[in-house]
Amino acid sequence: MFQKTTLILLLLAIVSCKNSETNEKEKIKKINWLLGKWENKTDGGILSENWKRLNDSTFQAESFFIKDKDTLHFESITLQQNGEELFYNATVKGQNDDKSVSFNLTSETEKKLVFENPKHDYPQKITYSLINKDSLVAEISGIQLGKPSSEKFGMKKSE
Fold first, then answer.
1. What are phi and psi of 140, to 5 degrees?
2. How far apart are CA 16 and CA 12, in angstroms?
3. Residues 155/137, Cβ–Cβ less than 8 Å
4. Could you give the CA distance from residue 105 to residue 87 in angstroms, rounded to a whole number?
5. Interatomic CA distance for residues 88 and 32, integer angstroms
6. Could you give the CA distance from residue 78 to residue 65 in angstroms, rounded to a whole number?
7. How far is the C-alpha of 119 from the C-alpha of 121, rounded, in Å?
8. I need a surface site. Which of 45, 54, 86, 87 has the fewest CB within 10 A?
9. pLDDT tens digits along 48-96
10. What pTM does this model have?
11. What count of Cα atoms within 13 Å lies in the side-chain half-sphere of residue 114?
């Protein structure tokens, strides 16, 4: 009897671990809509984000703003699932000693992701909202110079 109970508990533990791993992969799969190349072309320049899947739990992107032939802003981003949590890690060239700043996923729906870091100078919040399969709005917001501030960037999928 003891051996059967032990075997059943061992099997339950293995199945639970498998389900946990599957759930982890399923969580980031829900936001596959973010993958691809997104652009916002204006008279002031081109904002571009190119999202790729690195593995089952990590997406990576490069974000840059180009005016004429000059890159005015460059940022590398990693979206990583660790357990049940998603983290948005941004590294902006020339800021924060080129170290990444982490934002935790605080809200998520089928078409919206909200990442926050209340301790960061600006922005404290980063939001991605899927409008349809070929367009999204990225928004950064928070307190800047003592006042509420936000910027929205509508982007179209180009690839």
1. -115, 140
2. 6
3. yes
4. 6
5. 15
6. 18
7. 7
8. 54
9. 999 999 999 999 999 999 999 999 999 999 999 999 899 999 999 888 8
10. 0.83
11. 9
